[in-house]
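#structure-requests
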Amino acid sequence: MEEVIKVMKKIGGEKREGNMWQTNSKKELAEWRRKIDSIDKSILELLSTRLDIVKNIKLWKKATGKAIVDVIREKELFIDRLNKGTELGLDAILIIKIFDLIIQNSRQAQS
């Protein structure tokens, strides 16, 4: 809880009755939400770019007779992303779920 209090003080929140937080202004809240919207847009654009690359990999695999599923690569990817994500303070379960969906989508795009 102390960590939450530190973060809220840093971003300009004020403690209210019942452990509720109130930002200094609606303008601040709108700015935070604008930043989240921008980040979400970037995530979607990056996923689209990733899918374009996956489609190129599909063509390469088809031309070279390689299998769609590369278990070793997927294992390496999960370990790498899990390590990088947890270093950034992200929840391990979240990382696994996100990249499981991304891998499933990649497999589907290559089928």
